[in-house]
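Researcher: Go.
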Amino acid sequence: MATVLVHQEWVDLLVSPQRRAFLLQWLDKYIFFGDDVQVSDLTASSYCYRLFGEVAHTIRHTLGLPEFTTPYQHVTVAQGGRSLTVAATSGLALPGFTLWSDRPLTDWLGTYPQLQDPEWEHIRIRQGRPAADAELTEDYNPLEARLGHTLSFDKGCYIGQETIARLNTYQGVKQHLWGLDLNGCVTVPTPLFLAGEKVGLLTSCTPLGSGAFGLGYVRTKVGGAGLTLQVSSNRQAQVVEVPFLRTVA
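Model: Structure:
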């Protein structure tokens, strides 16, 4: 997934770290000859944070930010000759912000608790947020990933527009992304079965209590929430709703 924030003279594009090199090449390939467009990777000179929970609440008051009224609304805060951009999205189905600057957060606001990668991955999966190289690959389209809200069905002439429009018009989406409540961890990716027939694929998994929680694609024809699937000889998964997909689907 990518977050796009439009400024007056430029666009900020926040993407998964492992996809940035590919996207730079891809964007450069499709810029029309003669267009006054430059694409730069600012990763090495930027700091980006997802803020939610009590930390987001505290920082909003510290910076004197207004109450955001629309998704992805963003403001720029100037301080000491430098600027800090704050956008109204936490990247999850949780109230919060995305914050980025050319300085570390500690330079602006002091020290706050930070999640480590495994902790973020756990929350991401529990929330149901699809990730690059797991739920978001060349094998799946945005409608299957339940990201229809990110698409325009009115704007023409973008890559894949005809395919997406046809799938949407004729209800041709053959699988959807769901949460999966498991009775134990398994290695991903791994197939999902119903009555011995493969009906999907588990793409992410994280420990949860005495069991586990995952994300995976399930064929539309076999059902959705409430369905029980077999993962292995001793592992089962119940299909459930998740906050992120339930909110945006």
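Model: The longest strand covers residues 197-208.
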